[in-house]
Amino acid sequence: EVKTVVENEFVFGQEIFGSDGAFHDGGFRITKGGIVQAPGMERKSSMGELVDNVPPSTTNIIYIKSLRDIDYIATLGAGASGQVELAFHKQSKSKMAVKIVNVFDEERRKQLLKELETLTTYVSRFLVRFYGAFYDGSGAVHVVLEYMDSGSLDEAIKVGGKVPESVTKQIAMHCLRGLSFLHQYNVLHRDFKSANILLSRRLNRSKLADFGLAKELGEVSKAATFVGTMAYLSPERLKGSQYTTAGDVWGLGIS
C-alpha cells in the first residue's frame, strides 16, 4: 500500500520524504529538529521506582535541538541495524551513542521504526535511555542514545574472559528487571543476547538495548515469526513453534 502523496512530497517505497526535510513512516515524522510526530501510544515508565536498592536514574533531562548540538568523536562499531558513533553533547558536556540508520534499506528501516516505537513508549532505568532521533536530509536517521561507558557484555567477555560470579549476578538481576518491565506490558525483546546487554561502570548498571525486533503481543499470548540470533534462540523458536516471553529469559541464560 502506497501512502497518499501530498504537495511537494514524493514517495519512496513505504515512506515519504517531504520538502520540509522530514522523514515519514510508521506513524513517525522525523525532521532535522527531531521527532515531531509519533504513534499515539501511552508512555509507560518505571523510572521512579526503587527496585532492589537500585536508585532511580538521574532526573536530569538532556534536550537536543538538532544534530548541530553534538560533535561526532569516533566510530564505536557497526551492526545489522546500522553504524554506531560516539558523540559529545556540547551543552550538557555528555558523551552519547548515536546509531545511524540508512532508511533506504527496507529491513533496517523496519527495525528502526520498531526500535523508536519501543524507546518512545517504554522507559526504565534498565533500558538504554533515548534522547531523540533526527533525519539528516541525506537518507539517514540518527538515533541519539545513552552512552554506556563499558560497552557490551559480549565485548567484556571477549576482552576479559570469564565474568566473576558476583558481577554476573548483578548483570543478571538488572537484565531481569528490564525484561520484567517489558514483559508486564506483553512486549518481547526477541533478540536477547550478550551483545545487546550494555554495561556502565560509571552508573554501576546493566541495561538492555537494540529493540529493532521487539514485538508487543497485545491480546495475543504468543508470537510465531522466526527472528533473532540463532545461537540464543530457545528450543521452541528453533523448531519454528510459537513462543512467549520465556524465550527472552532463555536468551539471558545463554548470554
TrEMBL record:
Enzyme Commission code(s) on record: 2.7.12.2
Binding site for ATP: K99
InterPro entries reported in the protein's UniProt record: Kinase-like_dom_sf (IPR011009), Prot_kinase_dom (IPR000719), Protein_kinase_ATP_BS (IPR017441), Ser/Thr_kinase_AS (IPR008271)
UniProt KW keywords: ATP-binding, Kinase, Nucleotide-binding, Serine/threonine-protein kinase, Transferase
Gene3D superfamilies, sorted: Phosphorylase Kinase, domain 1, Transferase(Phosphotransferase) domain 1
Chain ranges of the Protein kinase domain: 70-255
Record Pfam families: Pkinase
Source organism superkingdom: Eukaryota
A GO MF label: protein serine/threonine kinase activity
Reaction equations catalysed: L-seryl-[protein] + ATP = O-phospho-L-seryl-[protein] + ADP + H(+); L-threonyl-[protein] + ATP = O-phospho-L-threonyl-[protein] + ADP + H(+); L-tyrosyl-[protein] + ATP = O-phospho-L-tyrosyl-[protein] + ADP + H(+)
Coiled-coil intervals, chain numbering: none
Family: Belongs to the protein kinase superfamily. STE Ser/Thr protein kinase family. MAP kinase kinase subfamily.
Name under which the protein is recorded: mitogen-activated protein kinase kinase
Protein's organism: Rhodosorus marinus
